[in-house]
């Protein structure tokens, strides 16, 4: 009886250890600030959720206070602002770019997709066409550089 219990305990620990090692770390929660009536923002939230992010949405009227607080440069503003892992995410940034930023732990304020390019997450069009757009990395000094390119 003792041998059987020992074997079961060993199997359980090996099984638990293997499953624990193969799991990806959980993605951090994304806080999204948007206007209640914005349909494309709702679609972007769904894109994040499908990509494995937990999302908490705050419908607010005045987004400017949030944008100012997190440091979004006016020239890069879009329709919604999010916070994740100590960064801001402005506009229709693809989830894979957010994941890359979090993995790299860049010394930056955040990512931005200015305007609302057709075909970006949340701005999909029936034809499937993607208007070329860049995701910009915004440095602590407010300067931006290309982080990734889409639809080019």
Concise account of the structure shown:
The protein has about 150 residues and is of the alpha/beta class. About 35% of the residues lie in helices and about 25% in strands. The protein has four helices and seven strands; from the N terminus they run αβαβαββαβββ.
Mean pLDDT: 86
C-alpha end-to-end distance: 66 Å
Helix content: 25-40%
Shape: globular
**How does the helix and strand content classify structurally?**
alpha/beta
Order of helices and strands: HEHEHEEHEEE
Describe the sheet with the most strands: 7 strands, mixed
Based on CA atoms alone, the radius of gyration comes out at: 20 Å
- For the biggest β-sheet, the strand order reads 2-1-3-4-5-6-7
Low-pLDDT runs of 5+ residues are 3-23
| Tally of DSSP β-strands | 7
Helix count, DSSP H or I runs of 4 or more residues: 4
Q: Give the amount of beta strand, in percent.
A: 15-25%
Summarize the topology.
Blueprint: H1 2-22, E1 30-34, H2 39-50, E2 55-59, H3 64-70, E3 81-84, E4 87-90, H4 95-104, E5 108-112, E6 133-139, E7 144-150
Parallel strand pairs: 1-2, 4-5
Antiparallel strand pairs: 1-3, 3-4, 5-6, 6-7
Task: Describe, in plain words, how this protein is organized in 3D.
The protein is an alpha/beta fold and 152 residues long. The chain contains four helices and seven strands, in the order H-E-H-E-H-E-E-H-E-E-E. The protein has helices at residues 2-22, 39-50, 64-70, 95-104, and strands at 30-34, 55-59, 81-84, 87-90, 108-112, 133-139, 144-150. The radius of gyration is 20 Å and the shape is globular. The model is unreliable at 3-23 (pLDDT under 50). Strand 4, helix 4 (95-104) and strand 5 (108-112) form a beta-alpha-beta unit. A seven-stranded mixed sheet has the order 2-1-3-4-5-6-7, sandwiched between helices.
């Amino acid at each position: 009886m003792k041998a059987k219990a020992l074997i079961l305990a060993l199997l359980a620990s090996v099984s638990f250890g293997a499953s624990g090692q193969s799991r990806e770390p959980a993605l951090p929660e994304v806080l999204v600030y948007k206007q209640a009536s914005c349909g494309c923002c709702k679609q972007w939230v769904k894109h994040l959720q499908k990509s494995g992010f937990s999302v908490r949405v705050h419908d607010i009227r005045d987004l400017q206070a949030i944008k100012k607080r997190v440091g979004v440069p006016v020239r890069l503003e879009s329709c919604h602002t999010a916070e994740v892992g100590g960064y801001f995410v402005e506009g229709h940034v693809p989830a894979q770019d957010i994941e890359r930023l979090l993995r790299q732990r860049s010394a930056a304020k955040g990512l931005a997709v200015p305007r609302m390019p057709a075909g970006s997450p949340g701005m999909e069009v029936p034809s499937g066409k993607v208007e070329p757009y860049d995701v910009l990395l915004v440095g602590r000094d407010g300067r931006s550089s290309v982080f990734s390119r889409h639809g080019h």
